Amino acid sequence: MIAVSACLAGRACRYDGKANTVQALKAMVERGEAVPICPEVLGGLGIPRDPCERQGCQICTQSGKDCTAEYRKGAEAALALIQEHHITLAVLKAKSPSCGKGLIYDGSFTRTLTEGHGLTAELFIRNGVRVFTEDEWQEEKENSQKA
């Protein structure tokens, strides 16, 4: 069993009310092989919602509203959920202020990337969960099929 960002599993829970469906991940959820999580929704943020970006330790909207508490609450709820299911691997949405791993938007709202992790990815990694972005997961899957 793995955890996947709900938007990757076809759930329309992105900030703009859309999904980022990866068919293979959606199929895994449908077969009961993966648990979908959306930390933003778990933290109490609605759909749709103002886009946020990480600015150091804070996560804010472009107008400056601080949503860090909701993102932190959602990250902690997501961690509790995956620990309850004994999940140690997660496929999370790249670049997200919650789920991004390795590269996230820099807080300038200019689609500029910077090194770093989203709050949920960071919390998962600190707690021993292997985290992949959807692209890393696809690459890993392809490489294992070639071997």
From TrEMBL:
InterPro entries: 2-thiour_desulf (IPR007553). It comes from the Bacteria. This is DUF523 domain-containing protein. It comes from Holdemania filiformis. The lineage of its organism: Bacteria, Bacillati, Bacillota, Erysipelotrichia, Erysipelotrichales.
